[in-house]
Write a structure and sequence with these properties.
The chain has 275 residues and is of the alpha/beta class. The protein is built from 11 helices and 8 strands. It has a single domain (7-140, 209-273), classed as Alpha/Beta hydrolase fold, catalytic domain (Rossmann fold). The longest helix is centred in the middle third of the chain and has 16 residues, at 158-173.
Length: 275
């Protein structure tokens, strides 16, 4: 493994299924898992910063980035199994899993199925373990009506997915006014996921329930939840009440680690230094 540069490589995690990863250095591993349609490339600032002390690994989940595109397995139960396959293939232990958005679901799915023996910490970025609930006081991704409309009327074509993520990037992910080239870069990464896989993953995500698993993680492992500023008034009280073992940190938009890498990296570094 090269210690002076980030390597791009493929790892077999199931028969006929390879995940693309970015990797650098040899030490205690930090495993970064991106959100819906994104690839490990989105963590480029974290890979460079933390590779001086850690083995950094960023995954393209199944169906995303340069990883295998499969007809089945586009769900978070399978994604959790893929994480386990990667951990076994690379012989990892003493891992800190770092999920962003639906990458949180990959993380909790792995724990639910395979336990915590190989983990020493969990970091989750800006997504609830219960994305859909009738309780208006709970931290969710939206109402049933709103999410149903996205699934049935928006994510039904490549153009629809691009429009959805364009609006999401400028309205929720990034706080400052984006230059056209910056937006195009994010849309190019997102566009590597076929729309039909995006739709399958979206539907599975909003119907997921990892609340009890997330509670167990917070009760038994050092855990940190980053929360975006735009919904801190509902998300922070939810985490404090439902996930009392988690530390919380509020900053930026949904893509805070990308927009404000220096500040975000220092917060994560402080967390890691306590492990």
């Amino acid at each position: 493994m090269a210690k002076d540069r980030i390597e791009s490589k493929y790892v077999t995690v199931a028969p006929g299924v390879e995940l693309h990863i970015l990797e650098k250095n040899e030490s205690k591993p930090l495993v970064f898992i991106p959100g819906l349609t994104f690839s490990g490339e989105i963590f480029k600032n974290q890979l460079e910063y933390f590779s001086s002390e850690y083995r950094v690994i960023a995954i393209d989940p199944r169906g995303q980035g340069y990883s295998a595109k499969t007809v089945d397995g586009n769900d978070y139960l399978t994604h959790g199994r893929d994480v386990a396959g990667l951990i076994d293939a690379l012989g990892l232990k003493d891992i800190v899993l770092i999920g962003w958005s639906t990458g949180n679901l990959d993380t909790w799915s792995y724990v639910q199925q395979f336990g915590k023996d190989k983990l020493r910490g969990v970091v989750t970025i800006d997504m609830s373990p219960l994305p859909l609930s009738p309780d208006p006081k709970w931290w969710t991704e939206g109402t049933i009506e709103e999410l149903s409309q996205v699934a049935t009327q928006v994510l039904t074509s490549s153009e629809g997915c691009r429009e959805f993520f364009s609006e999401y990037a400028t309205g929720v992910m990034i706080q400052h006014k984006m230059k056209p080239d910056d937006l195009e870069y994010l849309l190019d990464i997102s566009g590597r996921t076929p729309y039909w896989i995006c739709r399958q993953l979206f539907c599975d995500a909003v119907s997921s329930n990892y609340l009890e698993t997330a509670k167990d993680v917070g009760a038994t492992l050092p855990s940190l939840m980053f929360i975006a500023e735009h919904w801190q008034d509902i998300a922070k009280p939810f985490v404090e009440a439902q996930l009392p073992g988690y530390d919380t940190y509020v900053m930026g938009g949904h893509l805070m680690f990308y927009e404000y890498p220096e500040k975000w990296n220092h917060v994560l570094e402080d967390f890691l230094n306590k492990l």
